[in-house]
Write a structure and sequence with these properties.
Number of strands: 8
Order of helices and strands: EHHEEHHEEHEHEE
Structural class: alpha+beta
Shape: globular
Number of domains: 1
CATH superfamily: Gcn5-related N-acetyltransferase (GNAT)
Length: 200
């Protein structure tokens, strides 16, 4: 697509549809690879390792999740990013025990987790990162969640073994507050994550 001049005016955000799977998968492959680069945003999974599995998983998420949005570059209608948010029920159904695994800050009022949405995945096509696409997606999804009475958002960012600096920067930009830490073993690797909270 070459050098894009991006603005809120030429990015269209909408809910993902089943026909979008291949383009969403293409974006995921650009940032979800086996080698993680700290200075660039990344997803935990290596999407190219099993195309059928990951495309089927993305399709399932499109069909089942309440908040799965895509960003398109209006001039050619190509998907250049996606944003997956889970409701509290969706997140805890797929991540049983997550609340108990978090080492919550003693200063954090845990009652603010009675109702929340959880940022699961944010991905922007690798050549177009750091151009505000994530922020446009974020603002649309948050506006929709607020209309439905959601007050709080939670999120995580990997800080080890390879820190996700792009995700850390996005958290700062969106005024996320660090409220805890969590450790997990995923596909035989150990990870440390920061847990964020934001009032929306």
């Amino acid at each position: 697509m070459g050098k894009l001049i991006l603005s809120q005016d030429n990015i269209a955000v909408s809910k993902a549809q089943p026909v979008d799977v291949r383009e969403i998968y293409h974006v995921a492959c650009s940032v979800g690879q086996s080698k993680k680069v700290a200075t660039k945003g990344f997803l935990m999974d290596d999407y190219k390792s099993d195309p059928k599995f990951y495309q089927a998983k993305l399709l399932q998420d499109i069909l089942e999740l309440k908040y799965f949005y895509v960003a398109r570059f209006k001039p050619n209608n190509k998907i250049i990013g996606f944003f997956i948010i889970n409701t509290k029920e969706e997140w805890l159904k797929n991540n049983e025990g997550w609340m108990e695994e978090v080492y919550w800050s003693p200063k954090f009022d845990v009652s603010k987790t009675d109702d929340f949405i959880f940022v699961d995945k944010t991905a922007v096509y690798a050549p177009f990162t750091a151009r505000g696409i994530g922020s446009v997606l974020f603002s649309v999804v948050i506006a929709d969640a607020k209309k439905e009475g959601v007050s709080y958002l939670l999120s995580e960012t990997i800080i080890g073994p390879e820190p996700n600096f792009a995700s850390l920067s996005f958290g700062i930009k969106q005024n996320y507050k660090v409220v805890g830490m969590r450790y997990e073993t995923y596909k035989v690797k150990d990870f440390a994550t920061l847990v964020y909270h934001k009032e929306i």
